[in-house]
Amino acid sequence: MAFRGSAAIRRFAAVGVMIGSMLASVGHGDWPRFLNRGFDGAAEVTSEIDWEASPRFRWSLDVGEGYGMGSVVGDRYYAFDSREVSPGSRAERLRAIDLDSARTVWSVERPLLYRDLYGYEPGPRTTPTVRDDVIVTIGVAGDLCCRDREDGALRWGINTNEEYGVVQNFFGVGGSPLILDDVVIVMVGGSPEEDQRLPPGRIDRAVPDGSLLVAFDLDSGAERWRAGDDLASYSSPRPIELDGKTFVLMFGRDALFLVDPEDGTVRWSFPHRADLVESVNAITPVVWRDHVFISECYQVGAAMLRVTPDDYDVVWQDPAGNRRAQSMRSHWATPNLINGFLYGCSGRNAPDSDFRCVDFRTGAVKWVDARRIRSSATRVGEVLLVLEERGLLQVVRPDPVKLEVIAEWDLGEADGERPALGSPCWAAPVVVGNRVLVRGDERVICLELPTRQP
């Protein structure tokens, strides 16, 4: 595989060590959005964790349908799910939960009309985004809401599926909101009026109408701009700094887009999708400076781009259709970038899945875990918390030479006061301070990690 810009990347390891050191010593422990404020799935830690000691169970919270983990700001955990309010009637629910006691501080609901085409849970796949005094959510049926963080009062709301003619994707809406300056940017992916008569499941016949991304005024909810001629994926928009200016990356159904958030101008797009009806893109692009990594699990695998505001170069790219030769085939979990190496799950389903390490610079696979199970991971200082979908939580030391497991706890089994987490455990853990929130099928549990005494 060819690689360009190697001089810059050779400095990556040293910079990564410096960034890792900063993460271990600064930050107040909030997790205000999907993948945290750095869009990298890394926790901000302020104390040294004793990974050799078992965590203490703090509390358990029953949750309804959905797959999102939730967000944390201050002493509140914001849980987003859905529940049945009466036979045949459902509501999407947002709750503010006291982080110490699991007591419900407030709870608000919106009616939900959604039937999954493949029988998956009729609840949110997304994470609330919190900034200052507002909290923004988008539900499985495209209901976008901006609320007051103090009490959940609705400031404004819009059903993006109805407003923009979204033809239902395989598993509903899956991209979390991005708050950037004074706008909320969400993936929509609407289609023209004639496409609303398509039969269920025929997303391959839907035509995009230029609304892959839509920016809404944070105060009023009014549309500011729309951009991108593509349908929706399950990825989430994220920022990237290029030449001193902020742009937005959006990995849509067919392509990766770079968008100017000032007016919605599409600067370029890079096609990257398997030629299959059921192919969906889900990971959020992984960024280091001007390098962008994307991946999918169906046919084409991964690609690394070196980007500018006006163009891109392909640094390396997996061979399409040859999955044995592909570096990383990401399904729904975004890999973690640590000191020049990617750590994450590759593969679509068990037994065609594994946890692996890949050289960010070249795409070379450094090692592959022999287990064939899907997982997600969160970085905590200099370790990874790797969560298998069956509930096994492992502490892994990032090492490009070998898989090194420091400790593991089977959360799929009950232990004393701690109840078992039901499968699937698909969301990566949220870590705030020395507390870990982990979600299973019907509950979230809070664990307290022991810290080393000075």
What are the key terms here?
single chain, 454 residues, mainly beta, five-stranded mixed sheet, four-stranded antiparallel sheet, 5% helix, 41% strand
Give the count of helical stretches. Answer: 3
Helicity level, as a percent range?
Answer: under 10%
User: How much strand content do the residues show?
Assistant: 35-45%
* Whole-number mean pLDDT: 92
Shape: globular
Low-confidence stretches: 1-27
Could you state the oligomeric state of the chains shown?
single chain
Largest sheet: 5 strands, mixed
Distance from N terminus to C terminus (CA atoms, Å) equals 47 Å
User: What is the gyration radius calculated from CA atoms?
Assistant: 21 Å
Helix/strand-derived class?
Answer: mainly beta
Kindly report the spatial arrangement of strands forming the biggest sheet: 1-27-28-29-30
**Count of beta strands:** 33
Notes on the protein architecture:
This protein has 454 residues and is mainly beta. The protein contains three helices and 33 strands. The chain has helices at residues 6-10, 12-23, 160-164, and strands at 42-43, 56-62, 71-73, 76-86, 89-98, 104-112, 129-131, 134-138, 143-148, 154-159, 178-180, 183-187, 213-217, 223-227, 238-242, 245-251, 255-260, 265-271, 286-288, 291-295, 302-307, 312-317, 336-338, 341-347, 353-359, 365-368, 375-380, 383-388, 392-397, 404-410, 430-432, 435-439, 443-448. The strands form eight sheets. The protein has a five-stranded mixed beta sheet with strand order 1-27-28-29-30, with no helix packed on it. β5 and β6 (104-112) form a beta hairpin. The longest helix has 12 residues, at 12-23. It is globular. The N and C termini lie far apart (47 Å). Residues 1-27 have low confidence and may be disordered.
